[in-house]
Amino acid sequence: MGLFDYFSGGGSEEDKRATEIRTGAVAPTRAERQRCWEARDGYFACLDTNNIVDALKDEKAAAKACKGESAVFERDCATQWVTYFKKWRVQDIQKRARLKELEAQGANRLDVNTDFAERK
């Protein structure tokens, strides 16, 4: 390791790439996105096991219960993605609960096609 590497933080190319992804300096590749999603799913599974819905609101409980999964999630995903996914999780759980309530009240599920019709 040279003197410049010592002052610039050194580390492997893989570590530098991971840091660039976390900070948003570079876009992740398909494989890196897949690794992020797997880390997210593992973290969410841990939250589910510990009955934690909102990891931002219940930050201390989430950190205690899912320390290892959180570290992997934060290591493998861009920082903005981590926050986004945590917020998305809460909204998705609320949406699913609301749909269950509506179905219990007799609402009918409609299949919606969001593809645009072909123009002739």
TrEMBL record:
Keyword Transmembrane on entry: no
InterPro entries, per database record: COA6_fun (IPR048281), COX6B-like (IPR048280), CX6/COA6-like_sf (IPR036549)
GO biological process, one term: mitochondrial respiratory chain complex IV assembly
Keywords for this protein: Cytoplasm, Disulfide bond, Mitochondrion, Nucleus
Gene Ontology cellular-component annotations: mitochondrial intermembrane space; nucleus
Protein's cellular compartments: Cytoplasm; Mitochondrion intermembrane space; Nucleus
One Pfam entry name: COX6B
Record-stated family: Belongs to the cytochrome c oxidase subunit 6B family.
Protein name: Cytochrome oxidase c subunit VIb-domain-containing protein
